[in-house]
Design goal:
517 residues; alpha/beta; 37% helix
Length: 517
């Protein structure tokens, strides 16, 4: 009886620009505590400002001379300095504070917006668009490399079975809505692209960025889960890798982006962005991270902020490549691909947060004016609403559900109303559900195509296939749905590693449901 080796954390050889310098780019949990401490100090300073203003006003009610007048001037100068410092601190963290406020209050989001099940067509329409909706493949570097969040190997074992499924080849578009890889490493992307190119389906493939593709702290998560990508360097490198992979698929070959006030082909814009960003990414492992200490702040601040500005400028250059409009003339349709991975998702505790941002929404609206196609679809990784099945009596579970839904979904729904978007396709939570909003737009959420449907406790490889009619009539949304469920893998998976070595316990999954294959 042969023994199947257990999954491991040993990654294959990496590119030099994927390796951090000896002292690393990340900081640990105490550094995150320092950030929170600074916020507490700033709140205390704000209270102090209010008190100083109160006393200064009392002193200013009567004419002052000598020491009292000097004290009054000193108090007002303190007010100005503290207020200015507090304003700068809060301004540099408005993104994170805004997302935190949205998550806790549901501001700008749909939360549990009401809806009803879609009305499906009884047969595939003729002359429409057929989309095979895959998601959350979680491809790792090799078949036995375990996932970053679970003590199990990634989706490699099931990837070949999904890509060899005959219903996949009948589709006009193969859409993968995020988490194509588990860590976003170059080796994982190479494994996925080799599988796609081997089957000659790259001309049908459209991929969407997911939080595992871009935001995970990659190699510094394992064994040290409480780490923070302090400068966003890992996120920048992963974004570069995703854009390169996107360029090798249908999305990159036929996509259009909005840059500098005009539409441009993705391939052309990517070539220019890569030329500007890749040298910096390649140089970062050899660049010393400038320190910033309170004692030598005035001498060190310029080098530190210049270092940060280089990274932020490079990330902004790559973010200009989103959204991407992918027109398909044969079906009079267009697919808009959005990047919902938030800039603040630099820590494992914040990794699942999603936000599109005002800049992307502006470019999306301008792109939509260039494509008058009747059938419009939107592809994004994070889901727009919290489903009732995700609610729980446990506070932690409810809080997790609030932090995984898209942080600014209302502008997206307004866009769908304004431009008549037929459906929004997403992944992220490994749940399969279909919901028609009161606005008429249909939300199509996909399970993990390699790990299964967590909501149905169905671990079989699976995906959804949709046929969209060119025009919806009054009684239906013009969509035909086929749920593709593959048989369970007859080969038993490798045993999970011991609980002592795992960052998280084994994910309990029940027996498969009796859905037809």
């Amino acid at each position: 009886m042969s023994h199947t080796p257990a999954p491991h954390d040993e990654l294959p050889g990496r590119h030099p620009w994927e390796e951090p310098p000896p002292d690393g780019w990340s900081s640990s949990l105490p550094d995150l505590g320092k950030e929170l401490g600074l916020f507490v100090v700033s709140a205390a300073l704000l209270f102090g400002v209010i008190r100083i203003i109160h006393h200064a006003r009392k002193l200013g009610m009567v004419e002052q001379h000598g020491f009292a007048f000097a004290l009054l001037i000193a108090l007002w100068l303190s007010v100005c300095l503290i207020a200015a410092s507090l304003s700068v601190y809060l301004y540099r963290r408005l993104g994170g504070l805004g997302i935190l406020t949205a998550m806790l209050t549901d501001y700008g989001r749909l939360a549990r917006m009401g809806g009803r099940p879609p009305v499906w067509l009884d047969a595939p329409p003729s002359g429409g668009l057929r989309v095979a909706h895959l998601s959350d493949l979680h491809v790792t570097e090799t078949d036995l490399v375990r996932m970053v969040e679970r003590p199990h190997p990634g989706g490699n074992r099931q990837l070949d079975r999904v890509l060899d499924s005959p219903p996949l080849y009948d589709a006009d578009v193969i859409l993968v809505t995020g988490d194509v890889t588990d860590r976003g490493t170059a080796a994982a992307w190479r494994h996925f692209l080799d599988a796609v190119e081997e089957r000659e389906i790259a001309d049908k493939m459209v991929i969407v960025p997911g939080n595992h593709d871009i935001a995970f702290v990659d190699h510094i998560v394992r064994k040290r889960a409480l780490r923070l990508d302090r400068f966003g360097i890992v996120q920048l490198a992963n974004l570069l890798k995703f854009c390169e992979a996107f360029a090798d698929t249908m999305g990159g070959r036929h996509g259009v982006v909005w840059i500098d006030g005009e539409p441009r082909h993705y391939a052309e814009a990517w070539a220019e962005a890569e030329k500007a960003v890749r040298p910096l990414v390649a140089e970062l492992p050899t660049m010393a991270v400038p320190p910033l200490t309170l004692r030598r702040w005035f001498k060190q601040r310029r080098a530190f902020f210049d270092y940060v500005e280089k990274i932020e400028s490079a990330r902004a250059r790559l973010m200009e490549l989103f959204p991407v409009a992918i027109p398909m003339a044969h079906a009079d349709s267009v697919v808009f691909v959005l990047n919902s991975v938030s800039r603040v998702s630099r820590h494992p505790a914040l990794n699942a947060i999603g936000r599109i941002g005002r800049g992307q929404y502006k470019r999306l609206d301008k792109l939509a004016r260039q494509f008058p196609q009747r059938l419009k679809l939107v592809a994004v990784h994070h889901h727009l609403v919290r489903r009732g099945e995700e609610q729980s009596a446990k506070f932690v579970t409810r809080l997790f559900a609030k932090f995984t839904v898209l942080g600014d979904s209302r502008p997206l729904v307004k866009f769908c109303i304004r431009w008549g978007v037929r459906a929004v396709l997403n992944g992220h939570r490994h749940l399969s559900y279909q919901l028609r909003l009161p606005t008429g737009t249909v939300l199509l959420a996909a399970p993990s195509s390699t790990l299964g449907d967590e909501l149905a406790h169905d671990a079989r490889p699976q995906f959804e296939r949709y046929d969209f009619a060119p025009r919806a009539d009054a009684d239906t949304v013009g969509i035909f749905r086929a749920a593709i469920r593959l048989p369970r893998d007859p080969t038993p998976p490798p045993p999970p590693i011991q609980a002592d070595d795992a960052d998280e316990p084994d994910d309990p999954s029940g027996p498969p449901t009796s859905l037809p294959t």
